[in-house]
Amino acid sequence: MRKILFTIFAICALSSITAQNTTNSPTSMFGIGEISTGDGGQFSGMGGVGIALRGNSFLNATNPAALTELDSLKFTIEVGVMGAYKRYHQSASTNRSKVGNINNLGVGFRMLPRWYTAVSISPVSSVGYGISLDQQVVGTTATISSYFEGEGGLSRINLSNAFLIGKRFSLGVNLSYITGTITETETNGTASQTSTSYKNTFYADLGLQYKLPIEKNKDIVIGATYGYSQPLTQDNSLAVSSSTGGESIDESEHTVKQYMPQFFGLGLAYNSLKWTFSADYKYTEWSKMKSSRAIVSFANQQSVKAGLSYILGSPYKNPVRFMLGGGIGNSYLIIKSNKVTNYFVSTGLGLTLRNKNILSLGVKYGDQTKVVKGMPHEQSVALYFNLSFSERTYRGKLK
């Protein structure tokens, strides 16, 4: 029990973390940064599906209704990290980077009969870029070098609750506090300008799942999720300074409104002793976002993901789960009318250790299509490591 209480305390202490820096993409300078796709976790090799997935040691933040599948006699803890190698190509220039950070951290358990809860933290978006530009001074042949740099992003602290209604229907809700700071600096010669934006909001999204047994050890799960649009509260400031010893200016700055988007998703899964198939569809309304740059606008996103897993060997004694998945969807950013489509494939293994803890390993390759010549083209290979472990509770307390 002490370990559990310490874990809960650690998660609460991490509420001051602004974001996980998981990108060096130049396009992260727009909007709220590069959006987290929710990859990682125990089923990271299955293409990021989750709307209809359930498991007795699986903390599913994608659809909180899945919490009702947790082992009622255990506290379940998950911690995950990620690392990625990314390649950015634009015109004749190619840049490469390596990034990595904590990807998810959470603890879940049964609070009361038919009521399950979890506390977790995960990234929402990430900003990380450094761009040098040489621009000609108007009316002369001289050029001036400018350097643009950004860092930060948003993180999400979740309190998830799920309720089992009858034997087959589960209803869940994520109550979230989203917070983070994004800092952007522009340096021209001896002068620099730094804008800092602290953003936060409260957010809620709902999930439901219906589990339909079709025969012994086989079932179908239907899932759905919904989140409403919520404006981000922003505290913006602008600082201008010069290295030549001139005056410094530090004042508040007003920027365009930004939102956490409305979304809905549908999922379907088939489960047997050895096989799991699952597919998700998600629609996210980003078009409500406004941009301060004329070349940038925001588009509603549609994405489709699918994945499968197969248990090698006995499903009862230290099983090994092989996973495969993929997905496709459009970017929420439109730059100079360029509408990019992102796609990826993934694979992974879930290893059940002797103590029944689960170590999951995932690999994901991501690429883009419909990239107009002269625009940035991103390719990436990401690695995910996740450990799910449990601690048994006293049976009498949970009856």
What does this protein structure show overall?
With 399 residues, this protein is mainly beta. It has two helices and 20 strands. It has helices at 2-13, 395-398, and strands at residues 34-35, 74-90, 93-112, 115-136, 143-165, 169-188, 191-215, 218-227, 230-231, 233-242, 249-252, 259-260, 262-271, 275-285, 296-298, 301-312, 320-335, 338-352, 358-369, 377-392. Strand 6 and strand 7 (191-215) form a beta hairpin.
DSSP helical segment count: 2
Q: Which stretches are low in confidence, meaning pLDDT under 50 for 5 or more residues running? A: 15-19
Question: Percentage of helical residues?
Answer: under 10%
Beta-strand percentage range: over 45%
Overall geometric form: elongated
- Terminal CA distance reads 17 Å
> What is the chains' assembly state?
single chain
Write down how many β-strands occur, each being a DSSP E stretch of 2 or more residues: 20
Characterize the largest beta sheet: strand count, sense, and whether it forms a barrel.
14 strands, antiparallel, barrel
Structural class: mainly beta
Give me the strand/helix succession. Answer: HEEEEEEEEEEEEEEEEEEEEH
Q: Can you list the strand order of the major beta sheet?
A: 2-3-4-5-6-7-8-13-14-16-17-18-19-20
Q: Kindly state the mean pLDDT as a whole number?
A: 85
Radius of gyration: 23 Å
